[in-house]
Amino acid sequence: MDWWFGSMFQLQHHSFAPLSIVTTLLALQLVEGSLQENDDGKVEYYKQTHNYGYCDFSEGKSCPFIGFNCLSNGRPDKDYLKYRWKPNGCHLPRFDGRDFLERYRGKKIMFVGDSLSNNMWQSLTCMLHTAIPYSNYTLSQSGLLFKFSLPEYGVSIMFLKNGFLVDMVNEKIGKVLKLDSISTGNQWKGVDMLIFNTFHWWTHTGISKTWDYFQVGDKVTKEMDRLEAFRIALTTWANWVDSNIDPSKTKVFFQGVSAVHLNGKEWNDPKARNCKGQTQPVKGSRYPVPNHPGEAIVKSVLSSLRKKVYLLDITLLTQLRKDGHPSLYASKNNTSVDCSHWCLPGVPDAWNEILYAVLLSN
């Protein structure tokens, strides 16, 4: 087994802000990682053993509804499956699906965000299905809401597609992204755990851009600085959390900014145009490009919250994994290169291991 290795340091933030940065067992900690080969140099694929049985995640066959299954879609290499995230200074526990379900028996969990939220949701549902493979589970869709239920535990794991968190409205002039308005928040209420995410859609251009105008107050504009738009929208979401969430009833997480790999110069490989053909992670404890601008905005806005929100700080973890994207294997007979999402099994499983570790620590 090979590992990402890490170290931790305290996040300094304003004393009144109850923000919890989560990347390992404890709140208020950031993780920096690096790679280390196992002692004998042999490859051991990602296999998980626990009290309730054994599963080989490298096969990817035990979850009939898994998406982004790169192996099934023809990816020829398997090395990307052999890495687990291991923080420096503490141990990240193995994910125990049955224990997770016992802790959330009769509860509702909802992911709200873009396709990276979907990536994490699919990972979690498959990890839980692996724990109880003979469950009479149900998987349903109603509009933008996807729901995975395990009747034995009365648990529902939902994904609500909402890439901006703030409102996008069809008006006469076109699709208007209203940065200071959230009218759909009632869909997020009555849930025991919320995991929010937004960032990637804010950077889209050309045919990938899904809106026509930005609006703040009465001011409508065709274009504005994307990071500033993201900051305003995230502040609107933070205000909604402060006004509507009761931390004694609902635990709130924010899924941090996931890295893309579209330029090999970022990892000191100028010949690489993107993640295509990448089969090994970035080695070392630092990503050559020091800071992700979206990450800084997320930490700044979340630090202003009055209510407790846990940040799953996955940015560095994902920056090191240039090998983990679907590339040409997001689907069968695919011709486009996907360097934004992640193969499953793969990197998002580590995000859910971190989520589970937080629940254990609480």
UniProtKB/TrEMBL annotation:
Signal peptide boundaries: 1-33
Top-rank lineage group of the source organism: Eukaryota
Keywords assigned by UniProt, alphabetized: Membrane, Signal, Signal-anchor, Transmembrane, Transmembrane helix
Domain Trichome birefringence-like N-terminal as annotated: residue spans: 60-91
Subcellular location per the Swiss-Prot or TrEMBL entry: Membrane
Single GO MF annotation: O-acetyltransferase activity
Ranges for domain Trichome birefringence-like C-terminal: 92-357
Lipid bilayer topology: Single-pass membrane protein
GO-annotated cellular components: Golgi apparatus; membrane
InterPro entries, per database record: TBL, TBL_C, TBL_N
Family: Belongs to the PC-esterase family. TBL subfamily.
PANTHER family recorded: PROTEIN TRICHOME BIREFRINGENCE-LIKE 42, PROTEIN TRICHOME BIREFRINGENCE-LIKE 9-RELATED
Name by which UniProt lists this protein: Trichome birefringence-like family
Organism: Trema orientale
